[in-house]
Amino acid sequence: MTLHIVNQSPYSGCALSDCLDAIAEGDALILIEDGVYAAAGQHGLPEKQTFCLTADANARGVSIANSVEGIDEARWVALCTQHNPIVSWFK
């Protein structure tokens, strides 16, 4: 099970769309930094195992959709220890 991390806004690059093209059943997705903008709208996010760093969403005034689970840094670390490999999408 892969952990995908997206830190780029879906409005300014292709990191999220590339990630969604590669994501497989059982993988998890974490939205961080400007990637949290995807947590507010309809961007084709997986219905399960989609997370958003709450501190980043709060800093940007983003309301997290019900289908996305807001997490703190401790949960992010736990997810990193539970998944292998970890892929960061940033282009």
What does this structure look like?
This protein has 91 residues and is an alpha/beta fold. It has one domain: Hypothetical Protein Ychn, Chain: A, CATH 3.40.1260. 27% of the residues lie in helices and 21% in strands. The chain has three helices and five strands. It has helices at 15-22, 54-60, 73-82, and strands spanning 3-6, 28-31, 50-53, 69-71, 86-89. It has a five-stranded parallel beta sheet with strand order 4-3-2-1-5. Strand 1, helix 1 (15-22) and strand 2 (28-31) form a beta-alpha-beta unit.
Brief sketch in words of this structure:
Helix content is 27%, strand content 21%. It contains three helices and five strands. The protein has helices at residues 15-22, 54-60, 73-82, and strands at residues 3-6, 28-31, 50-53, 69-71, 86-89.
Question: What layout of secondary structure does this protein have?
Answer:
Layout: E1 3-6, H1 15-22, E2 28-31, E3 50-53, H2 54-60, E4 69-71, H3 73-82, E5 86-89
Parallel strand pairs: 1-2, 1-5, 2-3, 3-4
